[in-house]
């Protein structure tokens, strides 16, 4: 690995950010870092590295050691590189904290407060790459790195962002290194991770869906479509009324996609309707694991299937009880 590659992970191994809905065939390496400063001498550090929605590694908030979560990670890079990475992580965390302390000495802040940083790179389906680096304060973007110019640009125009912009733009050597790390090294490492983690990236789990109803008011019924067990995360859920998609509106409400304990996902979608309104309803699910097909769960058939299942179960119970009664009768006589 090139020397700059060895600096990449300690420089931005753990950074915050939001879950990104990636275009099919696109891959992102995202490094997130959170530091909560309780007072001038006490702080809590959290970190995470993800590729798409695959958790690659995290930072132990107590020991600041790296925990690796994928068995193929160590094969992707030579052992010597990982040893250097771990030693540099410690140095990076100390340098970042000193930078924050220098920043707050020039501004008026009150404890506690949180700094976040988010950086990484993305490879598009056509092979082009883009990189990003953002520093945030209290959940809001504070300053962004301009990859082409190699300079920092303030996001809000306030005292803290202006001070951060001034401090970082004076570090010209550091900014030149950042350009190389983000534009070259990050992409090289992401390509390695894509190669070694292909099985995880291509993993697909079929969704299962059920439709049920709840009373939402005196003259309202809430139809709920629950979809779970699917992977990867992107999914499309829609309601059909008489075969036509229900447009967005106050009667339609779909939750965010949430994780399951088995590393799959779930989502709920609700539609408020009038009981016995004469329309037919169905929940339609589209997901990568289904290919070009759609999963369609009609509300009427869902009820019928549930009732049929209860009837079958009841009949089976009657048969078993009857058989036991006959066996006992014959045994007595």
Question: Can you tell me about this structure?
Answer:
- This protein has 7 helices and 17 strands.
- It is an alpha+beta fold and 333 residues long.
- It folds into 2 domains: 3-201, Murine Class I Major Histocompatibility Complex, H2-DB, Chain A, domain 1 (2-Layer Sandwich); 208-327, Immunoglobulin-like.
- The strands form 3 sheets. The chain has an 8-stranded antiparallel beta sheet with strand order 4-3-2-1-5-6-7-8, with helices on one face.
Secondary-structure element string: HEEEEHHEEEEHHHEEEEEEEEEH
Number of helices: 7
Mean pLDDT: 83
Largest sheet: 8 strands, antiparallel
Based on the coordinates given, report the CATH architecture of the largest domain.
Answer: 2-Layer Sandwich
CATH superfamily of the largest domain: MHC class I-like antigen recognition-like
Protein topology:
Layout (H helix, E strand, L loop, with lengths): L2 H10 L14 E11 L5 E9 L2 E6 L6 E3 L4 H4 L2 H27 L7 E11 L5 E9 L2 E7 L4 E4 L4 H11 L2 H25 L1 H4 L6 E10 L2 E11 L5 E6 L2 E2 L6 E3 L3 E2 L5 E9 L7 E6 L8 E4 H34 L1
Antiparallel strand pairs: 1-2, 1-5, 2-3, 3-4, 5-6, 6-7, 7-8, 9-10, 10-15, 11-12, 11-16, 13-15, 14-15, 16-17
Helix pairs in contact: 1-3, 1-5
What features would you highlight for this structure?
333 residues; alpha+beta; Murine Class I Major Histocompatibility Complex, H2-DB, Chain A, domain 1; Immunoglobulin-like; 8-stranded antiparallel sheet; 7 helices
Brief characterization of the structure:
By secondary structure, the chain is α+β, with helices and mostly antiparallel strands.
């Amino acid at each position: 690995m090139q020397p700059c590659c060895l600096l990449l992970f300690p420089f931005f191994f753990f950074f915050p950010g939001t879950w990104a809905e990636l275009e099919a065939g696109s891959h992102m390496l995202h490094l997130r870092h959170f530091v909560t400063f309780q007072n001038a001498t006490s702080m809590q550090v959290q970190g995470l590295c993800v590729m798409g929605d695959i958790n690659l590694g995290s930072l132990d908030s107590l020991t600041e050691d790296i925990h690796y979560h994928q068995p193929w990670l160590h094969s992707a890079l030579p052992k010597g590189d990982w040893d250097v990475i771990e030693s540099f992580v410690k140095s990076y965390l100390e340098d970042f904290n000193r930078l924050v302390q220098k920043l707050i000495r020039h501004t008026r802040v009150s404890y506690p407060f949180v700094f976040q940083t988010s950086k990484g790179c993305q490879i598009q389906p056509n092979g082009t790459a883009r990189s990003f680096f953002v520093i945030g304060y209290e959940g809001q973007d504070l300053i962004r790195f301009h990859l082409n110019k190699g300079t920092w640009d303030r996001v809000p125009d306030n005292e803290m962002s202006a001070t951060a912009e001034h401090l970082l733009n004076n570090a010209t050597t550091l900014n030149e290194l950042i350009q190389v790390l983000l534009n070259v090294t990050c992409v090289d490492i992401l390509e390695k991770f894509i190669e070694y983690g292909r099985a995880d990236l291509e993993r697909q789990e079929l969704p299962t869906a059920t439709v049920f109803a709840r009373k939402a008011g005196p003259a309202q019924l809430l139809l709920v479509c629950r979809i779970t067990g699917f992977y990867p995360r992107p999914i499309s859920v829609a309601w059909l009324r008489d075969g036509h998609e229900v447009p967005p509106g106050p009667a339609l409400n779909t939750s965010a996609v949430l994780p399951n304990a088995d590393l799959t996902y779930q989502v709920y979608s609700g539609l408020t309707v009038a009981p016995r309104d004469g329309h037919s309803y169905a929940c339609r699910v589209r997901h990568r694991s289904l290919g070009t097909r759609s999963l369609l769960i009609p509300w009427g058939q869902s009820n019928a299937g549930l009732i049929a299942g209860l009837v079958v179960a009841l009949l089976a119970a009657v048969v078993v009880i009857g058989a036991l009664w006959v066996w006992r009768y014959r045994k007595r006589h």
